[in-house]
Amino acid sequence: MISPIDEIKERLDITEVVSSYIKLQKAGINYRAVCPFHSEKKPSFFVSPNRQIWHCFGCGKGGDIFGFVKEIEGVEFGDALRILAQKAGVELKRQPPELITERQRLYEICELATRFFEKQLEESKSGKEAKQYLLERGIKGESLKKWRIGYAPDVWQGLSDFLNSQNYKKEEVEKAGLGLTSEKGSFYDRFRGRIIFPIFDLNSQIVGFGGRVFKEKDNKEIAKYVNTPQTILYDKSRILYGLDKAKVEIRRNNYCILVEGYTDLIMASQAGFENIVSTSGTALTPFQLKILKRYTENLITAFDMDIAGDTATKRGIDLAQLQGFNLKVAVLPEGLDPADLVLKDVKEWENRVKEAKSILEFYFESTFSKFDKETPEGKKEISKVLLPVIKRIPNRIEQGHWIGELSKRLNAKEENIEEELKKVKLDNDLSEVVGLEPEELKNLPSKTRKQLIEERLVILLLKAPSNLGMVKKEQITCFSSEIREILLNLKAYPNLEAKKLAPELTGLFNTLALQAEIEEGIEEKDITAETESCLSELNSLETKNKLDQISKDIKKAEGEKDSKKIEELTKEFNQLIKEKCQK
Ligand SMILES: [Zn+2]
């Protein structure tokens, strides 16, 4: 019987899986991209459809579809298996218990909770009221289904009793962020009497919830919004609401609209603006920006921006600017948020998005309308707002343009503006972005020199199989066992397909073969010369290793006062030295 792993591999194509996360470009028979796992400008990340593998020649990561999903989602193998099984439409029957991870239990809890909330919205008395309220706000019935909006009943233990009845422990419900234990030790639901918006990860799995009240409560102390706290599944700095459903449209339109609220997003999306995500009212984080950059570099914000204030929203926008996003601002009519405008006049919303201003234009216009450029105080205030904005422009030519613009409009000398610009300190500096380097990149086990030369040799031989005769049988025995196996197979079947190799070697072989494929522009004679030098270097490394070993043995024999052995070893040592000098 075929294993689910093989079945998934058969059904899913690696290019399809990878390109659902990052933009791929055709490069000969392969695809290439900027690596999502380390920062780089030139793409060194490759996907091979023939071999169904990916490999980054910058950071050395690589593998099959499972490895890719593990890496990009930051999950364990069991979760990657589940994600891909869902994509492939493969049912995982009788999963081995070791694959049912804690994360998976929490995903199940979130899914069950969503179903519970959905049912409440349809069937309970106050749920129906909540639904009525949503429909009156203009959210369509189909959107309620698409976004799986629900209702949490106003009781202490509605959801948690239900989850307990489904064999999920209180501790698990708490870990999923859905329940709390009071100081007196009683357990209760986090979400009570609220409309519930499930929050999806990039694979449309539910990882958290946002709940909001919809009726004016007598008790004013009740918070309008309640959200899932940080859990194993949910990290608000890593999630962008709606991105799972918007990513394809974002890539297709090559821009993304940013709004703040769930309803803003849902209303715009149901009106046909599907390339839209919500920041849920928090600042855009470096991580979120990094994910967005996989799909587009063009952002249009559609929320209130206080140009002078130091708000979370503005900090996120500053960071995006610093990271080189093209930012535009859709200016909405006074007092209307996107949900209101879409409901009132969708054409007007479309125009506002179309006519979005560049962030610099927006800052200039709003600052000059707010302060008097004729007075010294006004000039000072204007420069206080605009200098940091200008300083954040990564492109020097563009920056020069705006320095000129400011100088003209303030009637000040460009040199003076440049002088002031030098004094501006940016708190959102690039260290935040650099800090994104995955830890494991820094302590990748480095390969030994011998391994590197051996691998290079295989690549060269794959490029020019006619050179295989240069590798002598005696020398092959000195190679590491993996490379030896690959070379012997290569000698036996020069048109070697990875399939003929032992399964544990196919990964290494495919990576080397991919490397041979993408390396272009070396001439045959250079390949031969490099093959020769690899072989001779391996030879001398081998001799050096032997000499080291003999020295150790001599020391040991000296300790044991074994004079016969010392003599033998010394003879062997001298012989090797002699051979080495002759070469
Ligand atoms: Zn990389």
Characterization of this structure:
The chain has 583 residues and is of the alpha+beta class. The strands form 4 sheets. It has a 5-stranded antiparallel β-sheet with strand order 1-2-3-4-5, sandwiched between helices. A hairpin with a 5-residue loop joins strand 4 and strand 5. It starts with a helix and ends with a helix. The protein binds zinc ion (ZN).
What is the alpha-carbon Rg in Å? 31 Å
Q: In percent terms, what proportion of residues is strand?
A: 5-15%
- Summarize the biggest pleated sheet: 5 strands, antiparallel
Helicity range: 40-55%
Judged by helices, strands and strand pairing, the structural class is alpha+beta
Number of strand segments: 16
Distance between the termini: 56 Å
Which ligands accompany this protein?
zinc ion
What is the averaged pLDDT score?
86
Number of helices: 27
Query: Any idea what the shape is?
Result: globular
Low-confidence stretches: 428-445
Write out the strand line-up for the largest beta sheet, numbering strands in chain order.
1-2-3-4-5
Describe the structure using short key phrases:
583 residues, five-stranded antiparallel beta sheet, five-stranded mixed beta sheet, 27 helices, globular, binds zinc ion
